[in-house]
Amino acid sequence: MVLSGSSPNKYTYPQLFKACGLEKAIEEGVQIHGHVIKHGFHDDEHVISAGIQMYASLGCLVEARNMLDSIGDSDVVCCNAMIDGYMKFGDVGAAVGLFELMKEKNVGSWNTIISGFFTNGMMIEAEDYFKIMPEKDEVSWSAMIDGYNKGGCFKDALKVFDEMRREEIKLTKFVLSSLLTSCANTGALEQGKWIHGYVKRSRIVLDAVLGTCMIDMYAKCGRIDLAWDVFERTKRKEVFCWNAMIGGLAMHGRAEDAIELFLKMELENVKPNDVSFIALLNACAHAGLVHQGLNYFVSMKRRWGVETKVEHYGCVVNLLGKAGYLKEAESLISTMPMRPNGAVWGALLGACRMHGNVEMGERIGEILLDLEPENSGRYTLLSNIYAKAGKWERVERVRKVMKERGVKTIVGKSMIIFKGIVHEFKVGDSCHPQIGEINQILEKMVVEIKSNGHQPDTSQVLFDISEEEKETALKYHSEKIAIAFGILNSEAGETIRVVKNLRVCEDCHSATKIISRLYDREIILRDRLRYHHFKNGQCSCKDFW
User: Fold this and answer.
1) Around Cβ 312, how many Cβ atoms within 10 Å?
2) Alpha carbons 329 and 122: distance in angstroms, whole number
């Protein structure tokens, strides 16, 4: 352009700055900055704003601030860009300082600082600024919901959703997608249904992105039938839409249906990607379809042109390990073309726990504790292997290492939603307003299931205490408390839905099967790995999880 004698204008430079930022071309960016000054665009707010964003995106905060100072700090657009840059690189103090100095702020200024707080894990500060901001727009609400989701605070995101409904705020597609993610992670089926109804009432087109979020929500809320209905109604299905449905079927243990859908995807000329195969291999693992899973794994590259990644190896290690092929799984790890990560070794350690292989479990556990010294789940899994084998001195040794390294155990939590409110229970919880009534139901429930054949699996207790104390500890597992709450507060015959953050233990699993029969309830429990549909004393996983 320059060589041809054409003169750049104020619309040229923002695009050039953006390109330099995307390509991390700092030298070229400095040259463009020189051109801006040379051609007299150094006081154009849009050009300067783009320059600040370019410098800030590359971590050149001093240069970005110099650019801002060159025009003074009175321009709102440029100040917002600078605040965003500070926040992205963790200089919260400088961002807040500039924000407070601004003589004029627009809603974008508030949105930028709130999003920045979330980026830096400062949720309380984000909430405080959100409460006092003089004017909110759709981006403001979206920033709060998205920020909570990224921080794993899905309950708080749903509280923002409730506030939006009370204030009758219009919901955009982006906000709806974020809200569906919140519903999916809390099992908030009724809120998810309300969103679906809102989409229909507002005649919002169910495109691939929104459709995929809705499929994921229904699948993770235990309604795979409704997920399928949305999938069928989604007009234009991108590959990620197919992946969500295959993954949903996998999570519910419907491996044959997942495989059939994968083959249908191929017939409709939709090329599978790496995520497609992760979903497919997980489906095979959940159902113990070892040969089918291995066939898909070895043909990924040859037939579909998809490169195998470490995640695929992790899926196959899980596939082999769950089926009892521990040596084969370890052999596969030794032949991996890339370095195995914690997820790969973790899959094998989980299989060692499942099949009681203490010798291999100890060896793999040591590798994992060196590889991921801050991952509490690895210590817990190794302790579980030792405890089941009665090796209490080794359990104590693992606890000692955890204490020395300052590693805290992840607390088991179970969530259940009643009348739109998320109720969360921890093991041995005593804080809930209804805890007295819940414990009465729990005591009655434990007596009844025991008289109907339930034998408490005390090997799940990681403490060297008496059998009676172990049984008491098992009684107060979070999922049992959540189920008791559900029985207390719902109508006879109503489905109980529970979401747990960890893998459901064997004792709770066998207890829930009997509870479903005695109380004539369908109990749908989602743990960290998959869905369990308990009905008439049976579970959809067929005791393979």
Assistant:
1) 19
2) 42
Task: Tell me 152's DSSP state.
Answer: T
Q: How far apart are the first and last CA of the chain?
A: 63
| pLDDT profile of the chain (545 residues), mean per 10 | 59 79 78 74 77 83 84 78 92 95 93 96 96 93 95 93 90 92 93 95 91 96 95 91 97 95 94 97 95 96 95 98 96 96 96 94 95 93 89 92 92 90 88 94 94 84 64 84 96 93 92 96 93 95 87
Is 188:213 a contact under the CB 8 Å cutoff? no
**Tokens standing for residue 238:** 């991108």
The answer to whether the CB of 446 falls within 8 A of the CB of 473 is no
pTM attached to this predicted model: 0.84
Residue ranges of alpha helices (H) inside 151-188 are 154-166, 173-186
Degrees to nearest 5, angle at CA 118 with 112 and 120? 105
Q: What is the 3-state secondary structure (H, E, C) of 283-346?
A: HHHHHCCHHHHHHHHHHHHHHHCCCCCHHHHHHHHHHHHHCCCHHHHHHHHHCCCCCCCHHHHH
Contact (Cβ atoms closer than 8 angstroms) between residue 164 and residue 195 = no
Distance of alpha carbon 326 from alpha carbon 255, whole angstroms: 22
Which residue in this structure is represented by tokens 């963790």? 90
Q: Which tokens hold the place of 362?
A: 């100890």
3-state secondary structure of 363: helix
The C-alpha atoms of residue 192 and residue 197 are separated, in whole angstroms, by 9
Contact assessment for residue 465 and residue 490, using Cβ atoms and an 8 Å cutoff? no
Tell me how far apart the alpha carbons of residues 69 and 79 are, in angstroms, rounded to a whole number. Answer: 10
Phi, psi of 426 (to 5 degrees): -110, 165
**In what helix (H) or strand (E) does residue 497 lie, and over which residues does it extend?**
strand 496-500
Per-position DSSP letters for 377-413, written without gaps between them: HHHHHHHHHHHHTT-HHHHHHHHHHHHHHTPPPPPPE
Q: Quick one: how many helices (H) and strands (E) in the chain? A: 28, 6
